[in-house]
Design a protein that fits this description.
Layout (H helix, E strand, L loop, with lengths): L8 H6 L11 E5 L2 H18 L5 E5 L9 H13 L8 E4 L8 H12 L6 E3 L5 H17 L8 E5 L2 H5 L1 H5 L4 E6 L1 H6 L19 H17 L2 E4 L8 H13 L5 E4 L4 H9 L3 H16 L5 E3 L2 E3 L1 H16 L6 H7 L4
Parallel strand pairs: 1-2, 1-8, 2-3, 3-4, 4-5, 5-6, 6-7, 7-8
Antiparallel strand pairs: 9-10
Helix pairs in contact: 3-4, 4-5, 10-11, 12-13
Length: 339
Amino acid sequence: MSTLSSIHPRQALFGAEAHGHALPVCDHYAGVEARMRKSLALQADMARESGRALFDVTLDLEDGAPVGGEDEQLALICELLNSAANACDRVGVRVHDPRHRFFEQEVDTLVRHAGARLAYLMVPKLADAESARLAVATIREARLRHGVERIVPVHGLIETHRALQQVHEIAALPGIESLSFGLMDFVSEHRGAIPASAMSVTGQFSHPLVLRAKLEISAACHAAGITPSHCVVTEFKDRRGLAKAAERAAYELGYTRMWSIHPDQIPVIINAFAPVTVEVDDAVAILDAAQAAHWAPISHNGVLHDRASYRHYWHVLERAWLTGQPLPAEVQAAFFAQP
């Protein structure tokens, strides 16, 4: 490999946009204590093998706590966030929705006790842009109130008609890092006009209204420079169906992240979102030659490449890194060394 330029692709190709590290491609949800601990252990084990966290863990306050056990669930999650089990600092929390009576208490407690370790907060059931704006403001105010200097990114869940209508405005709000699609709530919002089959592993890719919603969310996220996160596949034993769904989400709908609700889904999603070997090889060769040319146009195998295609191949290489694909040691050192 040639001598690499000192200018990193993030600076050379994105400039003032300050393009940062992309999120892991898999977001795994867990709410029961035994499953939360198991998920954190799996995250740490896979990180030791690959050198980085290959998936995020989202601990669940909204659906994870039994009725009447919300305070105990909140205390447990704060304990886990601050413990050695959070070995990768890639653990977020799903709180209740902004209209719920527990929302402000959960945000305040999490930021006060674990703000330095929170990877993000997932806010469900965003009703519209105004509710998203208030949620971001509540989290920011808690951070300032408790002296937490680092910004706590906000992830949002789009699952209502009005939120979908305003998704571009929501995606553009400062502080929003990712938006996800709430498939089952969205289907229910149609009052029986969409059949239950549209929530299945195959039906969610064929019903026009569901497919339209997915495309709107993905497009809004890309326009705003944030991460679109694809919804769940509830048939967690259907590995083949999950793999096909993840591939369609990534390569047809433009999603760069996907939810997991069972540990067995994690490797399937990571593998589906990983670029194929020939794409990675092309990205390495093209970016190497581009850096050697100080990012001027080059010819590679008889094809002209410039900054437009360089940006594409950088994202391919970044995705390979995020999914644990093997890369030449010099590429890892030049592009992905920890600061």
